[in-house]
């Protein structure tokens, strides 16, 4: 396995739609998945999409939020898809390995369904909500050439991580000004 270089905002690969993987079980695809997992943990991050490591393929890996028992799952998907199950959205602060040192207040759908091929040839399909839905949408956006600042409603809500505590201390009505 290898630690891969992470592309940063401004690199053209991050603005391109990733290609479908023709053979999800090809050795080079399975190696890419393993390298992406190692890179994500090394970074450290919650998720990683292939374009973030300079590979224009529809591959994503992420860690689920803890379940009721506190267990987290590592998910590896090839050629994933998703759809919203509600029009309801919420706002939350997001960060990204390709936008280091920054956080942004991003709207995301609160409930979605996602699916994709697993490295072992199986298929995963889930309906999720909350933070799990947010992580999936964030990672899958990378596969369509979208970074979270492009989803933001107001760029005044794009801040350095070191300054985020000041914004979080404000009352909601003060944040609108």
Summarize the structure.
The protein has 177 residues and is an alpha+beta fold. The protein is built from 4 helices and 8 strands, in the order αβββββββαβαα.
Tell me what the structure shows.
The protein has 177 residues and is α+β, with helices and mostly antiparallel strands. The chain is 23% helix and 31% strand. The chain has 4 helices and 8 strands, in the order H-E-E-E-E-E-E-E-H-E-H-H. The strands form 2 sheets. A 5-stranded antiparallel beta sheet has the order 1-2-3-6-7, sandwiched between helices. Strands 4-5-8 form a 3-stranded antiparallel beta sheet. Strand 4 and strand 5 form a beta hairpin. The longest helix is centred in the first third of the chain and has 16 residues. The chain starts with 26 loop residues before the first helix and ends with a helix. The C terminus is likely disordered.
